[in-house]
């Protein structure tokens, strides 16, 4: 992957999706709604209403490696390997060259995971619906109900060179403290400081990391902030550090992806993702953990 490449905006708005669905070319829409506190809620939300023709992708079953399956990261939501994930894309019927638009009801944090995985597999035509389901409804989009559609036939999706950067916990640990590494933690400030930890066995953060909660990338309407606003905020956070040095992470590789989207949207390039996140870091023997309380 060339980190200096010119990046298109990863986002589209609902009126654009309405136009695209009139085709050609073909557009595949995927609903990624998922509640971390209730893993069955997203499928119910999908059944109650979704973009017509949309597939449903479950964070645990479709976008994470299962127990005993090969994986590309550790943590609570381990990434499947690229080879295993492209098999899923074929099973969904995805064809080469099709546009894929992803959305959710959780502020884009779950759909962002699928957008990132598609780019990781080399899929250039992958986009996030800015504002998600609420934006679709506000634009007057039609609503379908019931179970996901079955693929008419297997797709022919193939792997290409990754369009995003994945780094391991081990790689970050080896570079810790070096000027060419800027860690940005996307978790809420209280979790970063170590005041509370509802999900992982250790509270705190990686020494030297900066904190920017993923929600800071969004406005009150649930959409990403304007590119110029994001650029100013991120430049203030980095305080002269090179954008190319940034590695983002969260608890388990999901809510950090809005930071990837935000930096790309801001014209600052594509940061690397440490997908194993704090959940893998804090359970790896010998790695340092800090608190600021």
General description of the model:
The structure is a single chain. The protein has 293 residues and is an alpha/beta fold. Helices cover 28% and strands 11% of the residues. The chain contains 10 helices and 10 strands. The chain has a 5-stranded parallel beta sheet with strand order 1-5-4-2-3. The chain has a 5-stranded parallel beta sheet with strand order 6-10-9-7-8. α4 (109-120) crosses α9 (257-265). Residues 1-5 have low confidence and may be disordered.
Total strands: 10
Strand content: 5-15%
Give me the side-by-side strand order of the main sheet.
Answer: 1-5-4-2-3
Order of helices and strands: EHEHEHEHEHEHEHEHEHEH
Query: Any idea what the shape is?
Result: globular
Assembly state of the chains shown: single chain
- Structural class label: alpha/beta
Question: Helical amount among residues, as a percent range?
Answer: 25-40%
Radius of gyration: 18 Å
Biggest β-sheet description: 5 strands, parallel
**Uncertain runs:** 1-5
Distance between the termini: 39 Å
Q: Supply the number of helical segments.
A: 10
Mean pLDDT score, rounded? Answer: 94
């Amino acid at each position: 992957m060339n980190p200096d490449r010119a990046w298109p905006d990863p986002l589209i708005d609902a009126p654009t999706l309405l136009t695209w669905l009139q085709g050609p070319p073909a557009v595949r829409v995927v609903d990624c709604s998922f509640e971390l506190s209730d893993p069955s809620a997203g499928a119910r939300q999908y059944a109650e209403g979704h973009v017509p023709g949309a597939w449903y992708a479950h964070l645990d079953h479709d976008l994470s490696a299962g127990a005993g399956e090969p994986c590309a990261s550790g943590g609570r939501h381990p990434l499947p390997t690229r080879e295993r994930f492209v098999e899923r894309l074929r099973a969904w019927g995805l064809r080469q060259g099709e546009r894929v638009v992803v959305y959710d009801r959780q502020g884009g944090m779950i759909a962002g995971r699928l957008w990132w995985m598609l780019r990781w597999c080399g899929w250039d035509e992958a986009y996030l619906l800015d504002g998600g389901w609420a934006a679709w409804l506000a634009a007057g989009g039609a609503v379908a109900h019931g179970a996901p559609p079955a693929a008419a036939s297997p797709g022919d999706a193939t792997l290409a060179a990754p369009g995003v950067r994945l780094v391991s916990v081990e790689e970050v640990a080896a570079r810790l403290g070096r000027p060419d590494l800027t860690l940005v933690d996307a978790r809420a400030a209280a979790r970063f400081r170590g005041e509370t930890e509802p999900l992982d066995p250790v509270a705190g953060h990686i020494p030297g990391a900066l904190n920017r909660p993923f929600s800071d990338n969004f406005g009150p309407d649930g959409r990403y902030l304007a590119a110029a606003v994001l650029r100013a905020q991120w430049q203030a956070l980095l305080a002269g550090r090179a954008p190319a040095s940034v590695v983002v992470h969260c608890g388990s590789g999901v809510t950090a992806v809005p930071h990837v989207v935000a930096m790309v949207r801001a014209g600052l390039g594509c940061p690397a993702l440490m997908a194993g996140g704090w959940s893998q870091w804090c359970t790896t023997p010998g790695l340092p953990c800090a608190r600021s309380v």
